[in-house]
Design goal:
single chain, mainly alpha, Four Helix Bundle (Hemerythrin (Met), subunit A)
C-alpha cells in the first residue's frame, strides 16, 4: 500500500539519522510508527492522511536531534562509569595478588631489585592517576546530566567525555603493564603453588580488563563517527 510505503520510507530515513544509537533507533521507530499510524487512521487512513501526519511530525533530521542529547548522556554515563569500574577491578586484582604475593628473593640481583622498585613506583602512581582522571570524567558527565534541562548537548560534548575516558585508559594501561612486569620479574624465584597461580591469574585478569577498556573506547569512537550532526 502507498500509505505503508510512505510510512516505511519515513522510518528508514529516521533510522539512518539515528544510526549513532541502534537501540534508540529501534525504540523510536516503534513509537513513531504507532503514533503516525494512529494519526493517519484518525484522518481516514488514506495516503494523503499519512503524508499530512508525517509532515506534522517533522523531518527525520529534526526528530533525531531531539533524541540526541538523551542518547549522548546515557552513552557518556555508561562509558565513564564502566572505565571507573574497570579501574576498581584492576585494583581488586592487584590486592588479591598482594595477599598471595610471590615475595622477591633476598638474593635477587641488584638489577632485578631495581626493576621491581621502578615497576612498583610506576604501578602505584599510574593507578592513582587513572582513578583521579576517571573520577574527573564521571563528575563532568554528572554535571552534564544536571544541566541537561537547560543546555543542549552534541557531538562536542560526547567528544569531551570520550577524551576523559581516553586519558584515563593510558595510565590504567601503564599500571597494568607495570603490575604484569612485577609478576614476571618475581616468577624465576618462585615455586609452583597457590601464590604463583594467583599472581598469574591476577596478571591475566588485568590484561583482560584492559582489553575491555580498549574495546569500549574504540566502540565509542565509531559511534562518534556515526554521529552526523
Amino acid at each position: 500500500m502507498a500509505e505503508q510505503k510512505a510510512l516505511s520510507d519515513y522510518l528508514a530515513r529516521l533510522a539512518a539519522e539515528l544510526s549513532f544509537d541502534s537501540d534508540l533507533a529501534a525504540r523510536v521507530q516503534l513509537e513513531v510508527a504507532s503514533h503516525l499510524q494512529d494519526a493517519a487512521d484518525g484522518q481516514g487512513g488514506s495516503v494523503d492522511a499519512m503524508e499530512i501526519a508525517i509532515q506534522r511530525f517533522g523531518s527525520p533530521v529534526w526528530l533525531a536531534r531531539q533524541f540526541a542529547d538523551v542518547s549522548l548522556l546515557r552513552r557518556a554515563t555508561q562509558l565513564s562509569s564502566t572505565i571507573l569500574l574497570i579501574a576498581g577491578g584492576v585494583f581488586l586484582a592487584m590486592k588479591t595478588r598482594g595477599l598471595f604475593a610471590v615475595q622477591p628473593l633476598a638474593a635477587a640481583s641488584d638489577h632485578l631489585q631495581m626493576i621491581q622498585a621502578v615497576a612498583f613506583s610506576i604501578d602505584k602512581v599510574s593507578f592513582l592517576a587513572a582513578v583521579l582522571l576517571g573520577a574527573v570524567g564521571c563528575m563532568y558527565v554528572a554535571a552534564g546530566r544536571l544541566l541537561a534541562p537547560f543546555q543542549r548537548r552534541g557531538a562536542a560534548y560526547f567528544r569531551r567525555c570520550l577524551f576523559f575516558s581516553w586519558i584515563t585508559a593510558w595510565p590504567l594501561a601503564l599500571c597494568v603493564v607495570a603490575d604484569v612486569t612485577l609478576v614476571v620479574a618475581r616468577l624465576p624465584g618462585a615455586t609452583v603453588g597457590l601464590s604463583t597461580a594467583v599472581s598469574l591469574l591476577s596478571a591475566a585478569s588485568q590484561i583482560f580488563l584492559l582489553a575491555i577498556v580498549v574495546l569500549i573506547v574504540r566502540k565509542a569512537l565509531r559511534r562518534l563517527e556515526r554521529f552526523g550532526f
